[in-house]
């Protein structure tokens, strides 16, 4: 890699850091995280609810007005423990501090900018822009499908690219969406490394970038070399393109992070567990 390309990568990563809404991977959407977090929130509520609010577990008779026995409550705890996501978090002190910093950045900087942009640009145009960038980043998904030997998914990615680039007018439209077989799950290098048996490593929250793991952080850097925007010259133009993409994407997702945070008893732990659960499920697909 030339020194110029390295500087290019570092600047793009820095820009992404200053504009990302708190998730390093686009596939880990706030809607999904919110649904996972809601389940985690419900699990915590059950262990602290009044007796009449606790649903009966299989094989347990509930008597109205009576408390559950210790054995019955232990049964619930064991069941919920099976669904709990575990990841090493040796940097918890750092991670919690960065999490709160990112939270303030989202509410004080990124969200106001995205809201102003949303007022000016209609939703149809913003969705078209998102479609364009999704189409443009086909190489990331296509190469990782090949690296995972997912030939059917690779063929679907290539076919979707051809259809959306032509019929969809450079990808601003998404006619391939009508065909489920042409819309496989998204792939990235972090998932590819996971498919090769590489574990998450430890959990880490990056300033501005948000939740990640050691494995996914390496994958994020690798995916930049497959993103055509990385090779745009001059470098300032590439930075501007990436900035616009992030603001546009955030304008379409305002409210998702807010819902997750509102539903959580402990937002830091909820976001961490939801992120790891989502990434693990993506690797298994």
Task: Describe the protein.
63% of the residues lie in helices and 3% in strands. By secondary structure, it is mainly α. It has a two-stranded antiparallel ribbon with strand order 1-2. Helix 1 packs parallel to helix 10 (235-251) and helix 6 (138-147) runs antiparallel to helix 7. The longest helix is centred in the middle third of the chain and has 29 residues, at 92-120. It starts with a helix and ends with a helix. The model is unreliable at 17-68 and 72-82 (pLDDT under 50).
What keywords describe this structure?
285 residues; mainly alpha; two-stranded antiparallel sheet
Short description:
With 285 residues, this protein is mainly α. The protein has one domain (3-21, 96-284).
């Amino acid at each position: 890699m030339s020194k110029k390309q390295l500087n290019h990568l570092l600047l793009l990563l820095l820009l992404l850091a200053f504009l990302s809404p708190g998730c390093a991977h686009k596939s880990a959407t706030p809607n999904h995280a919110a649904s996972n977090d809601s389940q985690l929130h419900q699990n915590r509520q059950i262990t602290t609810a009044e007796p009449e609010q606790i649903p009966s577990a299989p094989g347990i008779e509930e008597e109205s007005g009576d408390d559950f026995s210790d054995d019955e409550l232990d049964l619930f705890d064991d069941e919920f423990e099976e669904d709990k996501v575990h990841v090493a978090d040796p940097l918890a002190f750092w991670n919690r501090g960065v999490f709160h910093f990112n939270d303030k950045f989202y509410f004080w900087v990124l969200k106001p900018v995205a809201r102003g942009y949303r007022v000016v640009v209609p939703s149809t145009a913003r969705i078209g822009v998102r479609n364009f960038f999704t189409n443009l980043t086909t190489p990331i998904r296509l190469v990782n499908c090949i690296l995972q030997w997912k030939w059917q998914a690779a063929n679907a990615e290539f076919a979707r690219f051809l259809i959306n680039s032509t019929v969809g007018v450079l990808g601003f439209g998404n006619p391939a969406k009508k065909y489920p077989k042409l819309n496989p799950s998204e792939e990235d290098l972090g998932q590819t490394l996971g498919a090769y048996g590489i574990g998450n490593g430890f959990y880490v929250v990056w300033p501005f970038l948000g939740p990640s793991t050691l494995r996914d952080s390496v994958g994020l850097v690798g995916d930049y070399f497959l993103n055509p925007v990385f090779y745009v010259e001059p470098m300032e133009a590439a930075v501007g393109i990436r900035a616009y993409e992030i603001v546009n994407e955030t304008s379409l997702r305002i409210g998702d992070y807010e819902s997750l945070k509102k539903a959580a008893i402990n937002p830091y732990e909820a976001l961490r567990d939801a992120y790891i659960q989502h990434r693990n499920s993506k690797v298994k697909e």
